[in-house]
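Final paragraph of the annual report: two paired records, presented back to back.
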Amino acid sequence: MDRDRLAQALMATFLEELEGHIAALNRDLLAWEKASSTARAQELVGSLLRTVHSVKGASRAVSLSLVETACHRLEEVLAAPRAHPPPPEVPELGFAFADALDDARQRLSRKQDLVGSPLEALLPRLSTAAQGQPSPAVPVAPPAVPPPPPEPPARTAAPAAEPSSEAPTAEALPVRVSAQKLDALLARSGELRVSSLRLEGRAEWVESLREELASLRARLQGPEEASARRLETRLGQLSRELLADRLTLSQAVSGLDEEVRRARTLPFAEACEGLERTARDVARGAGKQVRLEVHGGALELDRSLLQGLREPLLHLVRNAVGHGLETPEERRRAGKPPEGRVALAARLFGGRVQVSVEDDGRGLDLDAIRARARAQGWEVPEGVAAARLIFRSGLSTATQVTSVSGRGVGLDVVRSQVEALRGSVDVSFLLGAGTRFVLDVPLTLSTLRVLLVTASGQQFALPAESVERLLRLAPSEVRDVEGRQVWVAPDVLVPLTSLTAVLGLPAGIPKARLATVVLAAGSLRVALGVDEVLAEQEVLVRGLGSRVRRARHVSGAAVLPDGKMALLLHPGSLIRIAEGMPQATLFPAASTKRVRQRILLADDSPTTRALEQSLLEAAGYEVLACADGAEAWERLQRVGADALVTDVEMPRMDGFALTEAVRTSPRFSRLPVVLVTARDKPEDKTRGLEVGASAYLVKSAFDQTNLLETLRRLL
């Protein structure tokens, strides 16, 4: 290896090692600030000295004299004897050094010079602090062989900066494998898995040929029958050998997959490195106190997944401290301890990982969220669903713009980056007690089990873990609520639309029964009509490349066992768009009746009754208006009608009782019933549909086109 290549290799090793040293510095400095005893403080100072000494030795090896000098000055500051706790300016100087060192690492990785860098600007402060302290009577010398630094992202051990005279044995020699090589190895492993699945298909194809030949042999006689028997026997043997080879290959691929994944995994605590420092800095700037906790830190996760989670977790921790936690005075008044708590936790949930960020602060201010959303001209949902508006770009409840908040981009970044990992994010809160964000992401990013569907003649893949149910819906199983078609699930009303409508593709020919996929992302649900459901398969996932990386609703490309590709759709994005879409044409249009259709209208308010009657008559309907449910039921039995439009709150017989009477009548059991009411609570909507209403429209969100479109579809 020539000198230039050797220098580049040494620098790459140094920079990778330096990242772990910077994390160790921040960790020990934070612990030093909180040390409860002199003995613990001395232990942490010793650890800091060893880390700084390691950086100094490594920087000398790559000829970085500026880094070496800064480390030497900080060693002098740290080694000076002082009482416990240390004066605040000493840890602050250590934090400034760690930040400047990280800046230097980033500059060097971009092959930039360190002249004019924060590290160079920090040297005078380090020198002054070093000169202002008396020399210790007994200097604290670092050990001859400093302990290895925290493992870098590639999950390999790094050689010591100043090795001892005793060389390690061959068994103990550390091995460094770059993250890029591990990524490439995992990609090849995924391709082998797809090949294994393809081989299974070939074996099934040979077996089908053998069965076809057996059927043909039954119709042959003499020598031809004997030849066919021999060929059938050979095909059977080939089929068995193919299946055995496929089993062997599958076992080998599974073992290789497992080993590669283990080489790529890191503990969840690795993704949390630096977050305690972030929480501390934000809290100090806001005059708050915070304690950061990490639960499930030993859980081993894929390195790429942890890298993808770093920035969302950073935003959520900053948001929890800046927005969620109160000042010590506010917390005391609320009966809370002055120090706020932010807890990060990770746990496995089937084939997925759920990561939560929770604080014990004030909770979300829904009124402020709704006010800001209305100021933006957005549609504001009812109830706690309004909390999800915080994930939209441009919404912030901060009263002023700071370095932490106010621009309304932080949580939008969280959502977009989690969705890039094929995951979802949701929020819940208790007013005055705290807020909890839950990130739900797949355990692996390279292979995935998918459901293959078609829409507008194209094939698409949906993550199988997000598919809650498959249905074939008839028009009678669909209801209208507030102008939207819904499928009535046992415990919830699920919005219904078509995949072609969400993707903006040409609609296919409506069918009598609609193939439907119910997708789930967190607590959200949507039912998507598709042309056909094809199969469930394991696929290899590929990125789309930089040119189409931001394709709407698409998170990657699925490589199918036959070598073809299908776009992998993102459930969270589909659900979010589907919730706000206008009603799609999902079923064949009913034949138009030639006679004028009669609408029975029941409402106890003369004004509302007159307005609705005028609207319906202008649309060409014959209208029979009634003042209450009892009158409507009597007239319906006497003269009949093509549809019933009724209020709920009426004297003598309310709309629920009227609808129930209609449904239990053999004569009118199939009559379309539209409830138009001011009741907008979910339990009222559910009850209306349970008693048999065909559609449920809320007066507060009433749009005359909704009523007319609903009647057009029902009639």
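The closing record of the year follows.
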Amino acid sequence: MTEPFSTTRRRLLQFGGAAGLAAAANSLAAPGAAAATASSRGPRTTVTDLGPAVVQYSLMSGLLVGDTVYIGSRNLAPARVIGFHLPTRKVVSVTDLDAAPDPTIQALAADPTGRYLYIGVLLKGDQGKPNLFRWDLTTPDKPAVGIGRTGADRDIRALAVAPDGTVYAVGGVTGTPPALWEYDPATGATTSLGVANPLATEAEAVAATDTAVFVGSGSVLVGGGDASKAALFAFDRTKRTFTSVVPKEMEQDPSLRCLGVVGGNLVVGTSGGVDPAKLAVMDLADLSSYTVVSVNGTTAKCFTADTDRIYFATDTGVYSYSLADKAVSAVEFDGPDLGEIWGVDHTDGKLEVVSAYGFVAEIDLAAGTSVITDLGTAGAPADAEAGMGIAAGGGYVYVGGTGTLARHDLRSGAVVNLRAPGEVKDAEVIGGRLYTGQYDALGIWEYDPRAGGQPHQIAQFPSVQNRPMDTSWDPANKLLLLGVQSDTEGGGALWTYAPRTGKSTSYVNPIDSVQLVAAVANRDGVAYLGGDNEAATGARGTVVAVDPVTGRELWRLETGQQKGVTALAVQGRHLYGLTRDGVLFVIDLHTRQLLHTADVSSVSRGYAALVTNRGTVYGVSITTLFRFHPKTFAVSTVVPGINGIWYSEPHVNAHDGKLYTLRGHNLVEVDDRPPR
């Protein structure tokens, strides 16, 4: 998708001094406001608005009801569901949800009559609003209505409707064991049925029959330590009790990812660790009778079936399981890469596949052909979505979205969406080429704008090292450095990649077995790693110096910070670090001592990012773009109220002396001349 650039959409804002900051705050809050200059003295800052960072119909769920595929949005505000009509290949209905903030729809389920579509929402925070909605599909012009909320279990990740119309929901939120929730359409009551697995960090799977509800859970996030591996429980709807029924072959997988009732079978998929994911087909009449097979990929999900086969998705494509010979085979077809798949349904010898790339693929199983329909072309309302990683260089700025990279041309202003599966967590431009760290467990990808085409994978690592956090280019060793988190096992890794040779290396747990590598910086061939810990207890805040060529530890320093490191940057002989509770610390790299600490929570709380530009360390938080004085380390505001809309952590990147980050949903270029 290409968005024509209009110079009228660029807004130039200049300000200096305290009065200028106030004027700029007012101007930034009003799109289209005229330029304002408050003072000719002191630092001068220019902010140029480059327009929405990433625009698409971003999605995270798909379900066929009748002749329409309903598709839930991701990272869009408001959250919405569209109805994609198969006979016409057009979007024929849309409903917006009154859910906030930053909502995403991962869970969809239909009642047995096909009249109601139930919608479960993921939220970044709880404002007391419903997270369970119902849309009457007989009156699609009327919006979905909120019908319930799952208490402290803020996120709904899976829904199921029993044959009698009772709705079941699971999900959870970090720090709270996930419960099974029940919505009774007769009474309108939403009730917790209790926690089946108190050691689980998340539940992503639920299925229901007349007599039982099945709950799948594990440690997709915040794993390691005592966190549960894959678990499957049957809830007796009459006795109101839970019983573990997990196949023993699945017990060591990190999590149970998906459940489905297909005929007389319960179909079970896991998220794999070092080993591939697994698929189990269990006899509902006798759950001890089952078959387990390994699949090609790290996740097995999105089950559907015909009379002979069960179809499902992994991160590598669409597959089928033969009920007769109990074998798995790839579904071959003539279409493009499907990327991350969020829906697979079977109808009349065809599969309807919902791709995070923003299209629906209809695959004719007999002919091996496909029809691809872009949802934007079909009428899906495209919006600016929450941003992810950001990188600038070679005349372009790249901003990550869901399944996409938006490439902004700094000369013409043209914006092109490139396909990149999963999520770009952070990125660097090196020699004109873009290098990205891709979540989930997708390694390192490369894109060369001079060659054209699409981004492609250049390095793969064990899937347990799944979440890239931070990137840094080491010019001395000519290595790309990436800090990584292991969601399922705890701890993390340092990845390195040499663009010249194509060699990649992974050093697992370079800080310790519980601290992820949340931040990476480098100077003179030494990599500096900052530790954090997603668990409630355990070590955090350690800084380790490492030789990135050998992985050998050179020295370490305990900063004593209780909230963990969120960002690092080097300027001169000083290593700057930020913590999640807004503490700046500075380490003298010559003496290897902690030189300075300060409370900077007025400009930075939670996750933040640091970058060095024009001899000064800059930072961005959710609220503010700021800088530190290179001699006194005093913090000052550069752009107040920047309020970038990020899916995860804020990012800032530098190129040719300019800074690039988000203000709201928009990409901005900041030209700042700091005082000396």
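The domain at 2-53+390-673 is CATH 2.130.10.10 (Methylamine Dehydrogenase; Chain H). This concludes the annual technical report; the extension proposal builds directly on these records.
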